[in-house]
Amino acid sequence: MPKVKPHRTSPSLDMTPMVDLAFLLVTFFMLTTQFRPEDAVVVDPPSSTSDLRNPDSDVLTLTIDDKKRVFFGFDKAAVKEEALKSMGLKYNVSFTKQQIAQFRNINSIGVPIKQLGSYLNLSGEERKEINPTLAGIPYDSLNNQMIDWVQGARQANLNLFSKQSFISIKGDGAADVQTVQKVISELQKANINRFNLVTSLEGKPTAAAE
User: Fold this and answer.
1) d(CA 139, CA 144)
2) What is the DSSP letter of 52?
3) Range with the lowest mean pLDDT among 9-18, 49-58, 171-180, 201-210?
4) What are phi and psi of 201, to 5 degrees?
5) How many CB atoms lie within 10 A of CB 31?
6) Quick one: residue 177, left, alpha or beta (phi over 0 = left, psi -120 to 50 = alpha)?
7) 3-class secondary-structure state, position 182
8) Is 150 within 8 Å of 70 (Cβ atoms)?
9) DSSP, res 174
10) Residue 51: per-residue pLDDT
């Protein structure tokens, strides 16, 4: 009598839980990822062998490009908002809630305070188009808005978080030396003598082989 072969079935794997897990992970990263706002100006700092790092927070950045322009930025949105309100009071300029919300999300600005409202009314793409033509923040002795921004932000950080601010000067490698010296001089006139000069790290020289 012939043998009856048992019916073999191929094993199956239910992929539904894996698909659900992948979907949940994608959703999680979409909701939690924070994109860094685009800088109004991009600079290429000079290189050095120093490996000292900037602090992780409470950093006020003055960026100097190769067109002698100065840009102001702070890494905390709440501090930027309070600094903006302080500048508005000082220069008799008012800002709408929408403009303030836009300012909180901008990484750095480089326009005189009187023109800032119009700049904030622009869309992100429109701001990106005109950024190369911005005048920068005034920093001369008769209209030193740069120092007013610095002092306003430092005071706001103290009021809101009871923390001192770290000032970083980020200059382009092709920036005018006199402009950098002028910015440093104006800080020192305001009794601000501690700041970091931002550089890009280059390889440290190694001892020649004998």
Assistant:
1) 4
2) P
3) 201-210
4) -80, 130
5) 7
6) alpha
7) helix
8) no
9) T
10) 72
User: Which of 162, 100, 113, 126 has the alpha carbon at shortest distance from 40?
Assistant: 126
pLDDT tier for residue 208 given thresholds of 50, 70 and 90: very low
Residue 167 CA to chain centroid, in angstroms?
Answer: 13
Token readout for 3 is 């043998």
Helices 177-189 & 145-161 angle (0-180, nearest 10): 50
CB atoms within 10 A of CB 188: 11
Q: Pick from 117, 120, 108, 38: which is nearest to 75 by CA?
A: 108
- Label residue 53 by pLDDT band (50, 70, 90): confident
Task: Please tell me the distance from the alpha carbon of residue 186 to that of residue 84, in angstroms, as a whole number.
Answer: 20
Amino acid in position 164 = Q
State yes or no: pLDDT of 145 exceeds 70: yes
Q: Which residues are CB-neighbours of 25 under 8 A, at least 6 positions away? A: none
d(CA 111, CA 90): 16
How far apart, in whole angstroms, are the C-alpha atoms of residue 57 and residue 157?
Answer: 11
Spatial CB neighbours of 42, under 8 Å, sequence gap ≥ 6: none
Residue 89 has what DSSP assignment?
A: H
The answer for residues whose C-beta is within 8 angstroms of residue 176's C-beta and 6 or more apart is: 66, 68
Please state, in angstroms and rounded to a whole number, the distance separating the CA atoms of residues 118 and 99: 9
